[in-house]
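Table S2 (text version). Query chain:
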Amino acid sequence: MDHCVYTDLALEAHSFFREGRRPSLPGVEEENRREDGCAVTRIRIVSQEAAQRLGKAQGCYVTLEAEDLSQEGREGQERVSSLLARELRALMPPPSRTAPVLVIGLGNRSITPDALGPMTVDGVMVSRHILSVMPEGVDARVRSLCALAPGVLGVTGLETAEVIRGVMDRVKPACVVAVDALASRNTHRIGNTFQLTDTGIRPGAGVGNRRMELNRKTLGAPVLALGVPTVVYAMTIVRDAMLAMDRAHDAPSGKSEEEMDQVVSHILPPPLNSLVVTPKDVDQMVRRAAAVLSLGINLWAHDGLSVEEIQDFMH
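Corresponding structure-token output:
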């Protein structure tokens, strides 16, 4: 990727490329709309050259930018989950009753900004074990779901992809849904932006801890990746503060985002320029985001069940 601050969001990578350069990047198709109070952006990377320039794999990326979820009540969060489920269906049809879906919660449960995946798994409506012993006693709309939070290499000594492949050999899922915390270039997107993609995921990429990729090639099944930004680089915060000061004094610098990053990189020497930070209310933020993700996955997989029916099943 051309720029010095990493982002997991294809929306931001494409926006950065367009900043001060050209209207669009050949090989990238972008659609924008608003629905249910969210800004929905669909980016499709169709060429290998564009994929290399953006640092993203070829495929489809859908970004849902919600309002501040901390100010939304239960109804607002369920509305985002319903939209998330509809976008998941557009990327991949709901699973059949016999072919299971494997939901993977990536990350470290003991580190709150990295606990999004495991916390999402906690809210997934798993049903494979029930369908295997008494399918006739379960609502026909319930599909086969199983879930796993494999932990991280530093805790388990096992590469995440190795654990997942071992489970897949036994379960043979029709598809994998991988959930992980992301990194953003924009502080306003922390905790409120959801990215869905059919390209798979590389765990830990957002904080420079790249592990083996999880995608159709490495796992042998389609992989949907879902994530929410929970951290930003300190460079991003300093850059945003400088831009805010310019606006407050009505004296815009005229510098592009890339030029601003270069200025900030001189202001923040190593290792501060690689510092990643998260909001002080990260506990509540991650819980909210995980609840939205898990309900969205449940509504997508168990197509036709209502929110109330899913909640009754879970309790």
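Notes on Table S2: The CA atoms of residues 44 and 196 lie 12 Å apart. Strands lie at 28-35, 38-45, 59-65, 101-105, 145-148, 175-184, 193-197, 223-233, 276-277.
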